[in-house]
Design brief:
mainly beta, 2 domains, 8-stranded antiparallel β-barrel, 2 helices, 26 strands, elongated
Amino acid sequence: MRFTIAPVTAVSIIAFTQIASAATPENRPVRRAPPPQPAPATTTNWTGFYSGPNAGGGFENTIKNSATTIPSLCDDPGMALCAALTAGVPGQFNTHPRGFIGGGQIGYNWQTGVFVWGVETDFQGANIQGDKSVANAQVVPIVNPFDSAPGLVITSGTGSQKIGWLGTVRARLGWTPTPPVLIYATGGLAYGQVKTDVSFAGQIAVSPGPPQPPFSGATAASNNQTRAGWTIGGGAEWMFAPQWSIKGEYLYYDLGTVTIDQTLNTCCDFGAVQSSTTIHSDAHYHGSIVRLGLNYQFIAATGLIGASAFAADLPVKAPPPPPILSWTGGYVGGNVGYSWGGAHTDLTGSGSGVQFCPAEQHCDAEPPNPFSTSFADSQTQQLTGVIGGGQIGYNHEINHQWVLGFEADIQGSDERGSTTLNDPFLATVCNSFLTFNGRCNGSTPLNGTSVTSLEAKIEWFGTARMRGGVLLNDGLLLYVTGGAAYGQVNVAGNVLVTASTPFVAPPFIFGPTTSAFDHSSTNLGWTLGGGLEGRFLGLLSPDWTWKVEYLHVDLGPVNDTVTPFSAASNTILAGPLNGTVRTNTHFTDNIVRVGVNYHWGAPVVANY
């Protein structure tokens, strides 16, 4: 029997064979990954609790004084002297407290669309303090039953203010121009511990008839309390990584006024002159805070929107790895920060004069009797202020791990600090009653005071530094830096000199005289520090980086600031008291600043 295969059957066999062949692994269809697409959109959720540390600086505050003579305790001829003593009370102490502040904050945010509102409380330890001393001297003519003689009135005072700690409880309301960036205003309650010290001294040198000592007195008062007030400000916060954010913030605070009343009495052993002055001091605690902070967001998270999905059951060919961004190339940028430092002043002074023989003793041919004195002091004033400027540099990356480079910067500066050096001095002069034929047979002390009010400031500075660092990852550089520093520094102020003899009738009075000085110098020194620089993680293009940096700067001294003085005598029996005050002031500084850099010429290295 003959069999035949139907055409349909043959076709079916051929088709089955092709299907089976196509089902082998090497012939299975492969779905390739789609071409690279733009980075998926991100959404940042600010809602939730957060907490973190902060650090910065604070400045400003003043003490105002008013004085009133108590007439019932000022007898003639003392009324004119009492009035002069009262008028000499310093009207204001510009204490300019400045210093470091640091602590922590905790808060909660709610986000509704592009708006974020919430509440925050913080607490900081503080070293915001400052002091100021002022001295005034006046020669007052008086008439009394015994003699007509001038009176020397010296009134001096010192005020100091300090904030030991500071806290706030505030509402925050902000807007997110882009999801990771929050710009906000804030305000609410402020509270803190404040300490106020105020002291005054008065001295009256007068000779009503029989020789008498100067009448002097002093008073001091201190107040330490916790005060509440208000605060208002604003800032910007950037979530640079999931659940981590950094912020810069400004706050103005007002803790109100501390009032201190005290009485300055001056009296003498003989009761001929006495005075009493009531002094009212108002210490207003208000100022500004600039600080940086870091927050961890406990609930907020950053997620991805629009991520593409592929079939799980088909093999996918992975795209090539992303390129490595090189740090090699030039860069330029700007910076702003806060600085605190010191200006240490060493002071030396000297003075000399001569006494002449009374004309009635006919001793013109005899040499005059010389006298001299000297004094020394030292003090460090705190310099604080805001700085800002720009930098330019070049990096060279080695083996995708190390970075070497050079950077130069120039900064404007608002750093300044003031102090007062109050230096008593003593000389021995002849008692005119005990001088015979020009020879000094008896002596009496000459008591004097030199008061140097000094302000030191850094007007501008710059650095030229090497940088060397390690790449913690492709976008984060940890570095150290050091090199030369240069800048213009200034020392200015005035010197007040007075002196008098207590046991001579009439008394020898020299001065008061005031001499001003103002000396600027461009100094060369050194700097050393370190910092952290990173890319903006998708917020800006890879050509942009941020940095946080600390530098210690030593600008050296302003040497030999010489201020001459000449305190005229009130009598023909003595010439002027001539001398000089010499200061050497050494400037050092600490800087914390944030900056932004734009890089160019950095090659992109393929990473296959």
